[in-house]
Amino acid sequence: MKKMIVGNLKMNMENVSQRDAYCKEMCEVFSGIHTTHTLILCPPVIYTEYFCRAFHNTSFAIGTQDCFWEMYGSYTGNTSPKAIHSLGGTHVILGHSERRTHNHESNEDIVRKTKTAIRSELVPIVCVGFLSHDDEMHSVHEQVGALLAGLSREEMEKVVIAYEPVWAIGSGKTPTSDEIHTMVMYIRSMIVQEHGKDISAGIPILYGGSVTAENIDETCMQSYADGVLVGTTSLSPEKFAAMVRGIS
Ligand code: 13P
Predict the structure, then answer these.
(1) Probe ligand 1: pick from 169, 220, 233, 236, max atoms within 8 Å of CB?
(2) Domain count, the chain
(3) How far is the CA of 230 from the centre of ligand 1 (A)?
(4) What is the greatest pairwise CA distance in the chain?
(5) What is the CATH number of the domain that holds 166?
(6) Cα separation, 139 vs 132, whole angstroms
(7) Residues with CB under 6 A from ligand 1
(8) Which stretches of the chain score pLDDT less than 50?
(9) Looking at ligand 1, which atom is closest to the CA of residue 96?
(10) Using one digit for the tens of pLDDT, what is the confidence trace for 157-182?
(11) Count of CB atoms within 10 A of residue 102's CB?
């Protein structure tokens, strides 16, 4: 089964030497790996163009970690999704819990960004699952509900959803495969209610939070997630490759 594997490099490359070394090593490690899975790397936005060039003609697509809800205009410091697309970017992560926390992004902001990303021909990977373990169902309900209320059926069909429980991010802890499966099915059932089974079945739902080569079978295969959104493991080309091999 084809899976979507997304590496979120976060703000972890503080200079061009680190960037260059990472791209070189990743290309070398993956030159010997033939995979049918969809591989996407999301570097800091400032490195988008470099990554698009470095990974041209490889099995990696390139995305970014955020974009703005307008394509053009007087919005100092923001990033146009249209510009990301013109550089060769194909995906954008939206609504990551770190942005919801540090940048105070609301569900409304994320819906606006999602719509503009789609109009800019980017695939939005929308993260849900914020807040504590106890009221996670409630958070997911509100976040997915906002998407369903704000997007048309045609827009919804173009979205990827990533379930990321905030307590699992960077903690080394993961939910059980049953818990992930329950949340994936819950999100799917919300989409079924609004748009029916066929649309729901076509929307990839990923899991993210402390995914490694050691737990990829449980977090992705046994949970029936359509793929994974990976932070720390994507910083090491060797570890990322071991994880991809784990589902090959
Ligand atoms: P970790 O894989 O480091 O837990 O990060 C997950 C994440 O936030 C990916 O977006």
Answers:
(1) 169
(2) 1
(3) 5
(4) 49
(5) 3.20.20.70
(6) 9
(7) 8, 96, 164, 169-170, 208-211, 229-233
(8) none
(9) 10
(10) 999 999 999 999 999 999 999 999 99
(11) 9
